[in-house]
Amino acid sequence: MLGLTGRSSDRQKPNPVVAKANKRLASRFYQLRTGHFLTGQYLAWTTRRPDATCWWCQYSIQTREHLFKNCPQWRCQQKTLWTTVLKETTKLPGPTRRRDRTSIAELLADERCSQAVLQFLTTTDIGRTSGPPVAEDEGRGQRGLGVGSAGPGGAGLGEGDGGD
Ligand SMILES: [Zn+2]
Q: Which of 37, 51, 78, 137 would give a disulfide with 141, using CB separation of 3.0 to 4.6 Å?
């Protein structure tokens, strides 16, 4: 009975690597893990942005996956990240993590990769802001005439995000 019951608490215990990081960084990391991360996808879902477009490269859906693997804005950092991840996971016991076969969920759950992920967050603006202000009046206003709808005007939904 004693001692044989594995480590069921592993999941809840704070990640030691992340615990050593500064608070802001750590909080970005945990947001990333829970999915409450400032991606276009998440912000569109919370209605803080009108759509999920990546504000760095205009790709149609900005997801964690996109930011960690594909967004051209962060190409160098992505390269460093995945090179480090591959190196670390090859060196240490456990499955080897390669960019093309590793989901972001797997990456984040793997403590061997945490340092590299934190480094990645430090060197990018990913998850730091909710993007540039949305230019709402581009398509409207100027046309004037006819389109007399008062419009919802986005009121009510913008319950501040405490920017920074
Ligand atoms: Zn992008």
A: 137
- Return the closest-CA partner of residue 103 out of 52, 63, 44: 63
Q: List residues, by chain if needed, whose CB lies under 5 Å from ion ligand 1.
A: 54, 56-57, 59, 71
CA of residue 40 to ligand 1 center, whole Å = 10
Q: What angle do CA 16, 129, 125 make, to 5 degrees?
A: 65
Distance 164 CA to ligand 1 centre (A): 22
CA dist 39 and 129 (Å) reads 9
Q: What is the pTM of this model?
A: 0.73
| pLDDT (tens digit per residue) in 35-92 | 899 999 999 999 999 999 999 999 999 999 999 999 999 999 999 999 999 999 999 9
Q: Which of 9, 76, 7 is CA-nearest to residue 84?
A: 76
Q: What is the largest CA-CA distance in the chain?
A: 78
Half-sphere exposure of 154 (CA within 13 A, CB side): 13
pLDDT tens-digit series, residues 82-141:
999 999 999 999 999 999 999 999 999 999 999 999 999 999 999 999 999 886 655 444
The 8-class DSSP code of residue 24 comes to H
